[in-house]
Design brief:
- Belongs to the PPR family. P subfamily.
- InterPro entries: PPR_rpt, TPR-like_helical_dom_sf.
- The chain has a domain of 117 residues.
- 66% of the residues lie in helices and 0% in strands.
- By secondary structure, it is mainly alpha-helical.
């Protein structure tokens, strides 16, 4: 016989106490209680405070998606979570990679939409967004580079009587860096001073990191020096730098200067962040210094700074661009094993491109197959890299196999297949057609140019005509070929004549309509 359920107060206190322990064991036990109540459709026995505490505990424990599901479940059940609970989840989502920032925006909008339904503000006073909640969602906007939504949310802070604080402006600086508006940084600093907001070291850190991210090391250096000297006219320092025409490209001297700047930042109490190191790694790529890029990557990890997706892909780019795809592959494997980072198509493409630049087609194909096995499908960039590798390796037969795959995906219906449809671009189709024309695969070349025309792409007839005249103008002109040999190449000759007809070159007259016969291959 099943024991009767304890009363709601006891259940709520139990979940609250387990959540308040803030330990892995406590969280696991609280989750098991929730799971049991949910399976028995008794979740309504818990009050809003206990569920809110569980959401906070889950968020702090790194279980962000579970925390978000708790808040969504509360909203669905008619509960209004405390602002400290739901804003903690928004904050964690905003800082998460991949879809986290977008989910943070959705959750924030769901809560505020519910709050606005109540005319009596006293009823929802504990759930109304505060400055901390706005800082969390503004951080999500900054991470997305969504300036329009950032501006809209910043302006509506006054609706809930929220005043921007130092952290709000730090996030604004981050947004300026994200959307590449270096010119606005000085205005942000002036507004901080105008509003009488007390600047913290993090504000100055954000400014320095932003200028480092822009590659404007001179201004970053001046800013650090002004802080070291205790100057109070930092706005003037920034204004003067805005009037200078800076060249944001890196040289060997600039990399040395960046390294010195990192040391100076540390000396004045500004710890470099992942953005600073990503910028340095990217600068090393510009001067073909893959060893330097690896040094900065390792130094960043020694400082306890977790690499981001950008860190890994930038280091992969360093090795791929210097002809070291195997090292890029090692970095990729580390990225896969890092639970904080979700490997995306950009990383896969970086790896494929590294092998293709050396003409290592088989290795690139094995990476692409590995992609598919992981549920990631090649896009136009993936195929473009592979085509370039095929051309470099002089393996036109591979181009035929690739074209068959691309052709198949062009006709895919997204609603009827797990494989996404592909819309090829001019660069991909032109590169494929180029290989086929050079290899005298004229039937396939005609298929590709037909695909180009279907997608509104004008084929480069002038280029193909030049290739044909230079490489194939004397094809099929031998008078000494045997009858058997002539019979074998008859279909290829018909394809060549059709291609010449399309190019506008003199061609043999044929009375019947020329058609593609799948029984004959021009390979």
């Amino acid at each position: 016989m099943r024991a009767p359920h304890r009363n709601p107060t006891c259940l709520s206190r139990l979940v609250s106490q387990l959540s308040y322990l803030n330990t892995a064991e406590g969280l696991t036990r609280a989750q098991s209680v929730i799971q049991r109540l949910r399976s028995e459709r008794q979740l309504h026995r818990l009050d809003a405070n206990s569920l809110g505490l569980l959401a906070v505990a889950a968020a702090k424990g790194g279980h962000t998606l579970y925390a978000a599901s708790i808040v969504k479940s509360m909203l669905k059940s008619g509960y209004l979570p405390h602002v400290k609970a739901w804003s903690a989840v928004v904050s964690r989502l905003a800082a998460a990679g991949d879809d986290g920032p977008a989910e943070a925006l959705k959750l924030f909008n769901s809560v505020t939409k519910r709050v606005r339904r109540f005319d009596d503000s006293e009823i929802v006073k504990d759930s109304r967004p505060d400055t901390g909640a706005y800082n969390a969602v503004l951080n999500a906007c900054a991470n997305l580079g969504d300036a329009k939504t950032f501006h809209q949310l910043f302006d509506e802070m006054s609706e809930f009587k929220c005043e921007p604080d130092a952290l709000t402006y730090n996030v604004m600086i981050k947004l300026c860096a994200r959307v590449e508006r270096k010119d606005l940084l000085v205005f942000v600093l002036e507004r901080i001073i105008e509003k009488g907001v007390t600047m913290c070291m993090t504000t100055l850190h954000s400014l320095v990191a932003a200028y480092v991210g822009f590659g404007d090391l001179d201004t970053a250096e001046k800013l650090v020096q002004a802080m070291r000297d205790g100057r109070r006219d930092i706005c003037k320092v920034l204004r003067d730098s805005c009037n200078d025409d800076d060249d944001d490209t890196y040289s060997d001297d600039e990399i040395d200067k960046a390294e010195d700047l990192i040391r100076e930042m540390v000396s004045v109490g500004i710890e470099p962040d992942v953005v600073s190191y990503n910028t340095l790694i990217d600068g090393c790529i510009t001067v073909d210094d893959s060893a330097g890029a690896l040094t900065y990557f390792n130094e960043m990890r020694k400082r306890g700074i977790a690499p981001t997706k950008v860190s890994y892909t930038t280091l992969m780019k360093a090795f791929a661009s210097t002809g070291q795809p195997k090292l890029a592959n090692k970095v990729f494997d580390e990225m896969i094993n890092d639970p904080r980072v979700k490997v995306d198509l950009v990383a896969w493409n970086m790896l494929v491109d590294g092998y293709c630049k050396l003409g290592l087609v088989e290795e690139a194909k094995s990476i692409i197959q590995r992609m598919k096995d992981n549920g990631v499908y090649p896009n136009v960039a993936t195929y473009g890299s592979l085509v370039n590798g095929i051309a470099l390796a002089r393996k036109p037969g591979e181009a035929l196999l690739l074209w068959n795959e691309i052709k198949e995906r062009c006709g895919v219906d997204d609603n009827e297949s797990d494989v996404p449809a592909l819309k090829p671009d001019e660069g991909l189709l032109d590169a494929l057609a180029d290989i086929c024309v050079r290899a005298a695969f004229f039937r396939k070349a005609l298929e590709i140019v037909a695909c180009m025309e279907e997608h509104g792409i004008a084929p480069n007839k002038t280029k193909y005509k030049r290739i044909y005249v230079e490489m194939h103008s004397r094809m099929f002109t031998s008078k000494h070929a045997s009858r058997a040999r002539q019979d074998r190449r008859r279909e290829r000759k018909r394809a060549a004549e059709a291609f010449k007809f399309w190019l506008g070159l003199p061609n043999s007259y044929y009375g019947s309509e020329w058609r593609l016969d799948p029984a004959h291959e021009d390979e």
